Amino acid sequence: MKRTRVSSGRACGGISVEADWYTESFAEAAQVLLSPETFSSADVLKARPSHKGLAGKLLAEQGLPYARTLIDNDAPEHKRFRQLIAPFFSNARVKSLREPARNFVRTAIDEVRPHGAMELVSKIASPLPLAMIGAVLGMSMSSGSLCQVKAWCDDWMALQSSSAPEGELVRCAQSYLSLQRFMSETLQNHDAAADDLLGALVRARSEGMLSRVEQVRLAMGVLVAGHETTTLGIANAAVAFVEYPQYHAAVRAEASARRAFVEEALRLDPPVQLLFRRVDRDTAIGGVTVAAGDRVAIDYACANRDAAQMGSDAQRFLPGPASRKAHLGFGRGEHACPGSTLARLEIELVLEALSGLPGLRFSEPPRRRAPHASLGGWDRIPLEWDASP
Ligand code: HEM
After folding, report:
1. Looking at the 3D structure of the chain, how many domains does it have?
2. Residue 84 counted as domain residue
3. How far away, in angstroms, is 179 Cα from ligand 1 center?
């Protein structure tokens, strides 16, 4: 364990975050993730520095009160929320989304193929995950409202960044409140009999299993967790795909090569780079004693590049070796990502489509997103290819 973050190449975001300790190996990160009775998730989202000042005042006065749901909760309460959403991420559910997702990607690529150029994030990496999480939730949105929801979610993510100026944080807080109102109204008008996640939340509320605040916060949490990370997952894998043309033929030809490529991209450039836990009792870890009340940052990016776990070539992009599948890109333990199968499917389908564009290359250098307390990846990827005459 270190008092400051260990650099891990491209994966580091370069932003200072509020933490007393940073994990610096795979073993330490795994120990934290697998010991929830010592390393608590409760309220980890509450203590954002950006939630102070004017933005915090606005949220306190006009927003719903804080309530723990999934990512910021511990057992046994956490289980109540997890069980509610789990059926909507089963293998069968994800399988039913394969064709809609594939059609989405094919249509988008068919539109741009003759032009020989596109900006991948705005064309596919951003709208695809939003459409898919919208389908899981049961939100039928016009493309206009999709854009609006996306903008609100982006502002919510920016709200978690302590480095933004206060005026910007206030604007982001207003977006967050708009999203809260939107989700609240959507839930009020949603069909209680619908076979989708919002339908399940409406039923759970009427059966007294959820408060209104929990219902809205849970739906918002799934909405944002389901697309912001996947957009980065697609983007980071796509950049690696362009950077390593030696894998293009295999990725095009074999599903197993596509899957291996996806895992390696998630390992070396994980969308979720840092997340936090609160120490509930003094504990020895990594040669130090962390004290009750300390805030620990789990450094997923460093864990995934740990040579002790991944081998001496851990820093190199080498899709394939089975051990690398054990990366921490989707977390581990009680909070392990429930959307990992859906996310992997979406990334795989995009790589499959990109592998059909001859001579694929960057038309301009891709751009890394602004540093964020937890997320990392590319947010602009201008591509070109040899368009057929
Ligand atoms: C590449 C894409 C994704 C990445 C890298 C990712 C990563 C993660 C990680 C690391 C966690 C663990 C958080 C913790 O330990 O505190 C997590 C939790 C979660 N993820 Fe994902 N995720 C992705 C996609 C998705 C998708 C597609 C969905 C939903 C459709 C989703 C929904 C969630 C939810 C609801 C949680 C909280 C689970 C809990 O606390 O029990 N994620 N994700």
Report:
1. 1
2. yes
3. 20
Q: How far is residue 330's CA from residue 43's CA, in Å, rounded to a whole number?
A: 20
Give residue-wise pLDDT tens across range 223-275: 999 899 999 999 999 999 999 999 999 999 999 999 999 999 999 999 999 99
Which residues lie with the beta carbon below 6 Å from any ligand 1 atom?
41, 70-71, 82, 133, 136, 221-222, 225-226, 229-230, 233, 270-272, 275, 329-331, 335, 337-339, 342-343
- pTM reported for the whole predicted model: 0.95
Å from CA of 88 to ligand 1 middle: 14
Q: Is residue 28 part of a domain?
A: no
Distances (CA, A) of 165 to 112, 177, 179, 310, 351: 38, 19, 21, 39, 37
Average pLDDT over residues 217-224: 96
pLDDT tens per residue across span 340-381: 999 999 999 999 999 999 999 999 999 999 888 889 999 999
Give the whole-angstrom CA distance, residue 273 versus residue 275.
7
Asked if residue 302 belongs to a domain, the reply is no
Range of the domain at 359: 44-254+328-384
Residue nearest to atom 18 of ligand 1 (CA): 337
The CATH number of residue 223's host domain is: 1.10.630.10
- 264 assigned to some structural domain: no
- Is residue 229 within 8 Å of residue 375, measured between CB atoms? yes
In the sheet with 274-279, reading across from the earlier edge strand, the strands are 21-22, 295-299, 274-279, 39-40
Determine the atom of ligand 1 nearest the C-alpha atom of 334: 41
Residue 288, SS3 per DSSP? strand
Q: What are the pLDDT digits (tens) for 154-164?
A: 999 888 766 67
